[in-house]
Write a structure and sequence with these properties.
With 106 residues, the protein is α+β, with helices and mostly antiparallel strands. It contains 3 helices and 7 strands, in the order αβββααββββ.
Length: 106
């Protein structure tokens, strides 16, 4: 089932895991073309994901290089199949926080 979701409605939303813990805010949405549409492959959550997004700008890249990720905080990679897309107001995971892969630090 294909469903259209406006990405701008998801960015910055806090995501809750099945164990009730906050997984962080959606900071990055990774999508790939499938025919004439973009299909979401995964989301990146947390403070590290925010710095990753800002790294496209010179300031963000300088911060990532300076701290080497050690002071920036945590970030998680959420495959789309582990996300419940039915409520864009209050996004939820279909797994516990411990089941998520952390974003790799350089």
């Amino acid at each position: 089932m294909m469903r259209e979701i406006n990405a701008e409605l998801l960015l910055g939303r806090r995501v809750i895991a099945t164990d009730g813990r906050s997984a962080g805010r959606i900071e990055e949405i990774v999508a790939e073309p499938q025919g004439s549409v973009l299909a979401v492959r995964e989301y990146h959550l947390g403070s590290y994901a925010l710095m990753e997004r800002l790294a496209a700008m010179p300031f963000g890249r300088a911060m990532l290089d300076f701290f080497h990720g050690s002071e920036i905080g945590q970030g998680y990679r959420v495959p789309f199949v582990m996300h419940d897309p039915t409520n864009t107001e209050k996004p939820r995971l279909l797994c516990a926080l411990a089941d998520l892969e952390t974003l790799k630090r350089a």
